[in-house]
Design goal:
single chain; elongated; 9 strands; 153 residues; mainly beta; five-stranded antiparallel beta sheet
Length: 153
């Protein structure tokens, strides 16, 4: 079966950046399973897998515009320390939900100073060219329930 709209696909993969540093990977025996065409993976990878079959190896490079988008400097802001609970120990790497003009979003703490906390609303992989390498382990047609819910069960 070819990968296409409403296929349930399972892949083993390794994701690296331009320097070859591993950014993410599936665990042995625990492939990523997703519903093709339901925005379950980044568009560039989904496009590259379309038309392939189980057993195929893949090695693709995805530019930011087909992944998590460009890094937007305006989404990095210094916030007064007083905006956080006074007894909370704020550390770099912590994530918080925040309200934005476009609705709720997740921000990550990137710097902590005495009076300000710097937060970044960009996805951690925004602005990066991503390199995926892996193998397609399985492809099957999605059930009606999976199609209705928009994800693989």
């Amino acid at each position: 079966m070819l990968i296409g709209q409403n296929s349930v696909v399972s892949i083993q993969y390794t994701l690296t950046n331009d320097s070859g540093e591993i950014m993410d990977q599936s665990l042995e025996g625990q492939p990523l399973v997703y519903l093709h065409g339901a925005a379950g993976i980044i568009p560039g990878l989904e496009n590259e897998l379309t038309g392939k079959t189980a057993g195929a190896d893949f090695k693709v490079t995805i530019k930011p515009e087909e992944a998590y988008g460009d890094h937007i400097p305006e989404m990095v802001q210094e916030v007064p320390r007083s905006s956080f609970p006074p007894d909370q120990d704020i550390q770099v790497g912590m994530q918080f939900n925040a309200e934005s003009p476009n609705g709720p979003m997740t921000v990550a703490v990137t710097a902590v100073a005495d009076d300000t906390i710097t937060v970044d609303g960009n996805h951690p992989l925004a602005g990066l060219t991503l390199h995926f390498e892996g193998k397609i382990e399985g492809v099957r047609e999605a059930t009606a329930e999976e199609q209705e819910h928009g994800h693989a069960n």
